[in-house]
Amino acid sequence: MTTLIDAPPTDADGLLPAAKKSSGGGLGQYILIRFLLIFPTIFILVTMVFFLMRITGDPITAAMGGRLPEDQLQERIQAAGYDRPILVQYFEYLGQLATGNFGRTLTDNRAVVEMLSTYGSATLELSINALLVALLVGIPLGMVAAHRRDKAPDAVLRVFAILCYATPVFFAGMLLKLTFSVWLGWLPVAGRARTSSELALTSLAAPTGIYWLDALRSGNMAALGDVMAHAVLPAVALGLLTAGIFLRLVRTNVIGTLGRDYIEAGRSRGVSEYRLVTKHAYKPALIPIITVMGLQIAVMLGGAVLTEKTFEWKGLGFQLANYLTARDFVAVQGIVVLLAIIVALTNFIVDIIAALIDPRVRY
Amino acid sequence: MSIPAVPVPMESPRAPWYRRLPVISHFNKSVGLQRGMLVAGLVLTGLFVLTALFAPLLAPYGFAQLSDADGNFPTQQAPGGKHLLGTTVGGYDVLSRVIWGAQTAILVIVVAVAMSIVVGVVLGLLSGYLGGWLDRILVVIADAVYAFPSLLVAIVMAIVISGGQSSLIGGIFAAGTAITLVFIPQYFRVIRAETVRLKAEPFVESAKVVGASNIRIMSRHIYRNATRTLPLIFTLNASEAILTLAGLGFLGFGIEPSSAAEWGFDLNKALADTTSGIWWTGLFPGLAIVLTVVGLTLVGESINDLNDPRLRGRKSTGSSSPAPVDSAAIATEVRAS
Questions:
Q1: Does A164 touch chain B if contact means CB atoms closer than 8 Å?
Q2: Contacts for A261-264 with beta carbons within 8 Å, 24 or more apart?
Q3: Of A92, A38, A60, which Cα lies nearest the Cα of A331?
Q4: CB contacts, 8 Å: A251 with chain B
Q5: In this complex, do B267 and A168 lie within 8 Å of one another by their Cβ atoms?
Q6: Model ipTM?
Q7: pLDDT by residue (tens digit) across B30-48?
Q8: Contacts of B163 (CB under 8 A, 6+ apart)
Q9: Contact (CB<8Å) B140/A301
Q10: Could you say which residues from 314 to 343 on chain A have a Cβ atom under 8 Å away from some Cβ of chain B?
Q11: Most CB within 10 Å of its CB: which of A41, A90, B8, B221?
């Protein structure tokens, strides 16, 4: 794991140009280069976050300053080693990260790793649900918009896409809550499940932490229904944000492929316009979606922070907001670093998938 | 013998200067639905700017005002009467805070976009033109920051700059700088890519032959050509800045309510109201955000479509050209959180 410290400069400089031209390199080489590029990305983000957070001072003063007498404060700073030179702390931090030690939170004294694994699954569940909503809404509507280009449905859908983009997730969430929970009373206001189902699900043997999966595995249908009801609004609020982007991507790409020769050939053979869109044009148009999905993961994680706060969905984002309010910067740093790793890894996976689907990506 | 009048193309260098200004030239090029979208965007954006400029005249009360001659404002009062849009749990007048919020938003946009344009353009020019080590390092850093959820970058920066809370000026600069760090990579990438392309153009080479210095080539020959796409990124970034500011405010990293009105912060406070069915404290600041962002996005998208001849007309004339450069991709690139 010393690669975390050593690899970046050499990797970045040796491999970047290769990754760009890579004439004649095979898939294996591409995957390897792409994999090695993960490390500089993570390394840079970790370094940036570390030094930026330390510019303000040490975490203990930030969290406890004003609440403890000065001498006790100094004592705790000394005990935690925050009075040593910053470079020493930095290398120690890198070493700890490499062994998977993210430190302990200041406010509630938990191991950051444990906190991350407890709440990470909730965020994962929310992101999966939201991604499903985004795909189910974005792709069909994008195809409709492309099919009816410059007609009324297209105009309406484009405005819809812009609205999706322009509405902050927390505002969308608030409106959904008001309408469906408070006024209509159809869906629960907040949280991931009722306390009873939460208890049943967390007491399972080896829970995944993804509630609907746990409910399915244990065959607890009542809990499943409850979990689903809780999941709808957050998933829609976060999913719509991405749905608008998917809609526009599918639209432009389907319009692009509809202009190709093979579509013209299909049209001249008498293939119906509907079939042209749904069968012939849409598959090539999906490739860009996969590439964009990598970026969308980052967008979604950012959105998840806000969604979780809106719906009191006890995931990483909810915790992040709490720790921010409590000025517990050790915990904040841990969450941010974990998210950086997730983003780097998903981007890697997405790039590989894109390369597998479309060989041109590799060259 | 009279020569028939030849219509002068809009973009010809001989068109009067005011017809060549970014938005006006785009307006002249537009037709139909596209013109409608551009106009709608301009109207919304104009409203936003006017509200911000004339906030002191438009707002019935101050943003931090809790009482007037008749005594303290009631708390959580429904819209109507003296308080057109109701009052918040803290006793603020919702309408006034929505109007003053436009001013905060525009200040943050100006600070954030101005700083990121300056830094991004300079770095992009240097990196693209000089190449080598500097270029590679800057590209890796920019890509790393770019891949990261922008809200988190902004949060980290907000912690760094203000420790979280601050006064009006401090808060605006904190939010502005936090957003700047998110945007720099975008300007950097665009300008760098253009610079690398332009570097190989004959006019740059001839400038070199004539003996122009690197700085002169960068600042005159490349700069002018590489910054064509900036109006588009600017409008998209302005909307992005508003969303990021609102996100920061919603997480409690905004500007103190006593020093400025900020929509995201008001939504944070309104969150607790929703469960008891109080809708006016959240709805109006939220709508203000949505309308402003929609306006800016419509302008940006229209400019993008009009810049691209393949997207400009009503229908592409059966061309077999590959997929047009799509606004969604650019918007996505420019977008996060």
A1: no
A2: A261/B320, A264/B318, A264/B320
A3: A60
A4: 328
A5: yes
A6: 0.76
A7: 666 777 888 888 898 888 8
A8: A56, A62, A327
A9: no
A10: 320-321, 324-325, 327, 329, 332, 336, 339-340, 343
A11: A41
Mean pLDDT of B258-286: 79
Tell me if B335 sits within 8 A of A162, measured CB to CB.
no
Report the chain B residue with the minimal C-alpha distance to residue A248.
B328
Could you tell me if B40 and A158 are in contact, meaning their C-beta atoms sit under 8 angstroms apart?
Answer: no
Question: In Å, how far are A123, A213, A221, A320 from A225, measured between CA atoms?
Answer: 19, 12, 6, 28
Contact list in A for residue B337 (CB cut-off 8 A) is 299, 302-303, 306
Phi-psi region of A103 (alpha: psi -120 to 50; beta: other; left: phi over 0): left
Q: Are A132 and A239 in contact (CB under 8 A)?
A: yes
- Helices (H) then strands (E): counts for chain B: 15, 2
Residues of A in contact with B336 (CB under 8 A): 295, 298-299, 302
Average pLDDT of each block of 10 consecutive residues along chain A (363 residues)?
Answer: 32 39 62 81 81 73 69 74 78 80 74 80 85 88 82 84 86 85 74 69 68 72 74 86 85 79 82 78 73 74 85 84 76 81 80 72 54
Answer whether 0.80 is exceeded by the pTM. Answer: no
Which residues in chain A touch residue B252, judged by CB atoms under 8 angstroms apart?
321, 324-325
Give the closest of B157, B271, B316 to A174, CB-based: B271
